[in-house]
Amino acid sequence: MAFFMTINGKRVEANDGEMVLGAARRAGIAIPTLCHHEAVEPFGSCRLCMVEVTKPEWKGWKGLMTACLYPCAPDLIVETDSERVHQVRRNVLDLLLARCPDAELIQKLAAEYGVHQTSFMQREKPDKCILCGLCVRICETAATSAISTVQRGHDREIGTPWGEPPPDCIGCLACAHVCPTGHIQYEETGMTRMIWGRRFELQRCEKTGKPLPITKEQAAFLAKRQNMNPNYLVTSADANRKQTAETFARIARWNKLGMQQEVK
Ligand code: SF4
Ligand code: FES
Questions:
Q1: Which fold is adopted by the domain 2-81?
Q2: 3-state class (DSSP) for residue 3
Q3: Can you give the residue ranges of every domain in the chain?
Q4: Beta strands, E only, 118-217
Q5: Nearest CA residue ID for atom 1, ligand 2
């Protein structure tokens, strides 16, 4: 059921079960996020999407909530750009800058909020991982749960079981593609793809002989999980289009001739 709420003084339509982030974005109101992705359930780990919320019956009390996890409700009043909200985002980005000083996205977002240098002590050996968990969640959702968060405290990081090349990985690159900071590296040369210390062979198009952007393990996984025709995954999009065009041409010839016979 649809209803109305208020975001930044604007009447915004929202739906039951929808989160504030979705309603705001649909209304053209920008809220920065780092750990959010449409393909996975919200998790609320980065805290960058904080907004202020209140309701008339709360008698002036306003809470800071994560927009990606806070459900819309009739009469909800949301502020996405108040000074309090900006202060929280500055703090979050200040901390992230100490953790990942070389991550371009963090530098850019921090600068947008006036943070040009972290006020915390920088990590000794920084990398670009903000521990948002998106890579792990996409791997759970779309692939094989091949990676996870490992270690504790300061040593917490995204890794593979026992730090070894993960046996369950299918080399699909979903983790690398969703990573907001570009922390997950991979290499592709000729028919080979390398990620998480594993080498994968790319599928070759059976019609053109060219490499397809899919590994053999990924093709087998998709064919099984999505119940797809395996042939569709071993031919390139061009070859599939050509085949479809040929089929349509045959149907067109058949219609034109109006013959109840197979058209060669
Ligand atoms: S590797 Fe990327 S996606 Fe994974 S937790 Fe780190 S920043 Fe997030
Ligand atoms: S996007 Fe909401 S907490 Fe990260």
A1: Ubiquitin-like (UB roll) (3.10.20)
A2: strand
A3: 2-81, 169-240
A4: 148-150, 157-159, 186-189, 192-195, 198-204, 211-215
A5: 33
Confidence at residue 182, expressed as pLDDT on a 0 to 100 scale: 97
CB of residue 103 inside a 6 A radius of ligand 1: no
The ligand with the least distance to the CA atom of 181 is: 1
Which residues in the chain come in under a pLDDT of 50? 260-264
Residue 263 pLDDT: 43
Residue 264's pLDDT is 44
Edge to edge, the sheet with strand 2-7 lists 10-15, 2-7, 77-79, 50-54, 63-66
Work out whether strand 186-189 and strand 157-159 pair parallel, antiparallel, or are unpaired. Answer: unpaired
- Look up the pTM and report it: 0.87
Q: What pLDDT was estimated at residue 262?
A: 45
99 lines ligand 1 (CB under 6 A): no
Contact 84, 64 (CB under 8 A): yes
In the DSSP assignment, the letter for residue 162 is: G
Would you state the pLDDT for residue 244? Answer: 65
Give the ligand with the smallest distance to the CA of 195: 1
pLDDT score for 255? 62
Return the exposure string of 28-57: e unless at least 16 CB atoms fall within 10 Å of the residue's CB, then b: ebebbbbbbbeebebbbbbbbbbbbbbeee
